């Protein structure tokens, strides 16, 4: 019953923990994926991220981590093209229609939906983008 206790508890160096936490801060990295790559339990890595069991030297590593998180959450304003006037719309599209244009490689699809069928349009678009 106590067979799992035969292995000694592993101790990890501060340098190793910094490497794991740096990998977690990479854009698009998941804690579970990083833990798996380093042969660790994801819960242990999450504890290190919260500061439990890890005391960075001089606080420098934690400062970099907080700056990285702030940079990932920063709002980026994008310029949008000017709205096309309703008179410039094709004659076969009604003023209250939903117009969708999809381009994938050489394929281009233009769809026009009446606003009354907006729910159907959402279902179709959801299926298309899967």
Topology:
Elements: H1 14-24, H2 31-38, H3 42-50, H4 60-72, E1 97-104, E2 107-114, H5 118-128
Antiparallel strand pairs: 1-2
Helix pairs in contact: 2-3
Protein model, in words:
The chain has 5 helices and 2 strands; from the N terminus they run ααααββα. With 130 residues, it is of the alpha+beta class. The longest helix has 13 residues. It is elongated and about 70 Å long.
Secondary-structure element order, N to C = HHHHEEH
Strand content: 5-15%
- Give the N-to-C terminal Cα separation: 47 Å
Number of strands: 2
Structural class: alpha+beta
Helix run count: 5
Helicity, as a percent range: 40-55%
Shape: elongated
**Order of strands across the biggest sheet?**
1-2
Average pLDDT over all residues: 75
Major β-sheet, in short? 2 strands, antiparallel
């Amino acid at each position: 019953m106590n067979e799992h206790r035969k292995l000694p508890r592993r101790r990890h160096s501060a340098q190793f923990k910094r490497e794991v936490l740096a990998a977690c801060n990479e854009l698009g990295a998941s804690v579970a994926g990083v833990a798996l790559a380093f042969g660790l339990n994801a819960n242990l890595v999450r504890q290190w991220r919260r500061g439990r069991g890890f005391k960075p030297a001089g606080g420098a590593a934690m400062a970099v981590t907080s700056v990285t998180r702030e940079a990932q959450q920063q709002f980026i304003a994008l310029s949008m093209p000017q709205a096309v006037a309703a008179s410039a719309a094709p004659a076969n599209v009604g003023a209250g229609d939903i117009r969708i244009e999809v381009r994938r490689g050489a394929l281009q699809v233009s769809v026009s939906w009446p606003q009354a069928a907006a729910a159907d349009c959402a279902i179709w678009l959801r299926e298309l983008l899967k």
